[in-house]
Design a protein that fits this description.
homodimer, 71 residues, alpha+beta, Transcriptional Co-activator pc4, Chain A, four-stranded antiparallel β-sheet, flat, PC4_C (chains A, B)
């Protein structure tokens, strides 16, 4: 997985920032030119490295919002 | 990471289900008896396997809700 590219289409928000400057972010990202997906992930400062994350479709994001609204 | 245990404290909701029955879920999980964290992850049927996921503190979950409310 070293040869891939991505484009951050939209930065939706930052959930938190660690002492070392890593941020947990919700972005809309296109991976290898494919259709963009929502992406919840840790990033090093200036996006130099990416950490673990999870991709969400727009339907999944809607469901997540509904779940959080019901808490 | 083969020797760990977890307890699902609360199942908050299912975001989606794949054709093979894997579900993307938001749960409150205690890993190895530690303080529970929110967890967004794919699960095989009957929780037989777990996929990639991301843990969120309650503060991060609140920020995520705020971000989604502003979309």
């Amino acid at each position: 997985m070293s040869d891939f590219k991505y484009e951050i289409i939209e930065s939706l928000g930052i959930l938190s920032e660690s002492a070392k400057g890593w941020t947990k972010e919700l972005n809309l990202i296109s991976w290898n030119g494919r259709e963009p997906k929502y992406d919840l992930r840790d990033w090093a400062p200036d996006k130099e490295k990416m950490g673990k994350g999870i991709s969400l479709s727009s339907e999944e994001l809607k469901e997540l919002k509904r779940i959080l609204d019901n808490q």
